Amino acid sequence: MNKPKTIGELRSSNYQTKTVKLEMRDNLIKRLKSGGPIFQGIVGYEETVIPSLCNAILSYHDLILLGLRGQAKTKIIRMLPTLLDEYMPIIKGSEINDHPFSPVSKMAADLVAEYQDEVELQWIHRDERFGEKLATPDVTISDLIGDIDPIKAASQRLHYAHEGVIHFGLIPRTNRGVFAINELPDLQPRIQVGLFNIMQEKDIQIRGFPVRIPLDIFIVYTANPEDYTNRGSIITPLKDRIGSQIMTHYPRTIEDGISITAQEAFVERETDSEVIIPPFLRELVEQIAVEARRSEFVDQKSGVSVRMTITLLENLVSNAERRAIITDSKVIAARICDLYASVTAITGKIELVYEGEQEGEINVTRALVGKAVRELFLKYFTDPLASMKQAKKVYADIVDWFKGDNTFEFSDQDDFETWFSALSEVKGLKKLTEQSKLVCTDSDHELATAMEFVLDGLHQHSMLSRDIIDHRISYSDMLSTMFNSFQRDEDFFEE
Predict the structure, then answer these.
(1) Helix residue spans in 35-140 (DSSP H)
(2) pLDDT at residue 147 greater than cutoff 50
C-alpha cells in the first residue's frame, strides 16, 4: 500500500487521528482478542505484571515499574512500542514529530500556514517513536525538555525571544511516542519537579517562553525500592501524577527461571561441538538463585538478579567448552565440577550482609551451591538420614566402597573416558543413578554428570567427605577423613 506523501493526500485517505494512548489501547485490545502473548519473551509475569500493565494501558495511565534489579523492567519498557502502529506520518523535517493536521512547533506551523495541503510528509517506524534516558544526578532540564540554542540564534539571525531558537530535549523529540526514564530516584528532586507539567497538562515551557507546546506522549518510569533510601527518592507530587505503580518480582517457579535463563544465556556455541546440559543441571542453577534469595548472608533488600543464573549457566558451559578444547572432544558436556569452577559468576551478583562478609564471598557462594545440591538431591532421591533411621540400605554400596579406603579424585580438565571410567568404579553408583528419574536420555555424558551429582548430594548430606583444591576435587569416606584430621592435629601439638 502506497503511503500518502502530502497532507492533502493524507486527508483524502480518511486517516484516523489518534493520541498515543488511544493508539496503544486499540492495539492492545486487538492483541488481547487474538489470544497471543502481549509481550513476546516475558516469562513468569502472565498472571501478575502483564495484567497490571494491560490495565494501565487500557486506563490511559502513565506508569512506573517498581522492583529489584534483574526483574525485566527495562526489557518490558522497550517492548511497549510494539503496541504502537507500525508507521506514523509526521511533517517532514519536524524535530518533535508534528502531527500533519495539528502541528505544534513553529517550524511546522509556519510550513503548513504557507503551503497547506502541499506540505510533504515523512512516515516513521514505531521503533523511532521510543526514547529512553537513564536517570543520573547530572541530568538537567535541558537534557529532558530543552533550552535556548545560541548557535541556532546566531546562524539564523533570530532574537533570543524567538521560538525558533529552541533546542528541544529528549522528551519533546519523542512527541507522539513512548518515553522511558530508568532509575527515576536517581533524578534530582528539582529535575523531577520539571516533569510535573508533562505528566499532568502534557505541555512544556522552556526558559520562560510565553508559548506552551502541548505534547502527546506516554511516559513510563522504572525504579528500585532500595534506591529510595540509598541514592534518592521519588518526590510525592510526581508520584501522585503517575497513574499506575506496578510491582515486578523474581521468577516464582523453578520452571519459569529455567525458561528465562535458557532464553537469555549464550549457550549454543559457534562450534561444531554438541552442547549437552542435563535438565537437572539447569534446575540446579535456578535452585542456587532460590537459595541466595533466602540466605541470611545475602542482603535481600538488594535482591539477587536473574542475571546471576544467566552468567552462571554461561560460565558453566564455558568451563565445559574449555575442557572440550583441551581434550580435543567433539562434545561440550556440562558437569557438576563445572558449577564449582564457575562461582565467579555468582560472587559479583550478590550483596552480602556483615555476617556474609565475615564468612567470605567464596565460602558463602560454595555454601549456596551446596544447599542447592542438597535440596535438589531430595527431589530425586531418598533422604539419606531417613534411610539410615529406617535401616534401608539405599546408599550402602556407595558408602561402603569409600569406607574401604577408596577415593574418587578427578580434575575438571579430565577427558570424558577417564572421568566416566573412574566414576563407574564406585560400587553401586551407576545402578542407583540409572534407577532414578534424574537421567532422561541414553547419553553417557548425562549419566556421568548425574553420577557426579549423586556423590555431591551424599557429601551435602554428610555421607561422604569432599575436598576442593583449585581445579581438583576428591570424594572419600567421611569418618576416615575426620580421624585423619584429628591425627594431624595431635601430631601438630606433639611436635
Answers:
(1) 49-58, 73-77, 106-115
(2) yes
pLDDT at 490: 46
Give 459-493 pLDDT, tens digit per residue.
Answer: 999 999 999 888 899 999 887 655 554 444 444 33
Q: Residue 137: its pLDDT value, please?
A: 85
Residues 313 and 366 occupy one common structural domain = yes
Confidence of residue 161 (pLDDT cuts 50, 70, 90): low
Among 216, 247, 278, residue at a domain's last position: 247
Pairing verdict, β 63-66 and 244-247: parallel
60 and 193 belong to one structural domain: yes
Q: How far apart are CA 267 and CA 381, in angstroms?
A: 28
Cell 487521528 belongs to: 17
Q: What is the number of structural domains in the chain?
A: 2
Rounded Cα–Cα distance for residues 456 and 480 (Å):
17
237 and 263 in a single domain? The answer is: no
452, 411 Cβ separation under 8 angstroms: no
Task: Provide the pLDDT for residue 493.
Answer: 38
pLDDT at residue 201, as a whole number = 75
Helix (H, G, I), strand (E, B) or coil at 135: coil
203-223 pLDDT, tens digit each: 777 766 656 778 899 999 999
Whether 493 maps to a domain, the answer reads no
Q: What gap in Å lies between CA 126 and CA 247, rounded to an integer? A: 26
Check: CB of residue 396 under 8 Å from CB of residue 390: no
Residues 228 and 292 in one domain: no
**Could you give phi then psi for residue 381, rounded to 5 degrees?**
-135, 165
Among 184, 212, 247, which residue terminates a domain? 247
**For residue 329, is it within any domain?**
yes
Residue 438's domain comprises: 254-484
Is residue 20 exposed (0-12), middle (13-18) or buried (19+ Cβ within 10 Å)? buried
Distance CA 89, CA 123 (A): 4
Are residues 340 and 311 part of one domain?
Answer: yes
316-320: long-range contacts (C-beta < 8 A, 24 or more apart)? 316/277, 316/281, 316/285, 316/342, 317/265, 317/266, 317/267, 317/269, 317/275, 317/277, 318/342, 319/412, 320/275
Where does the pLDDT of residue 162 fall: very low under 50, low under 70, confident under 90, or very high at 90 and above? Answer: low
pLDDT score of 230 more than 60: no
Distance of CA 165 to the CA centre of its chain: 42
Q: What is the pTM of this model?
A: 0.86
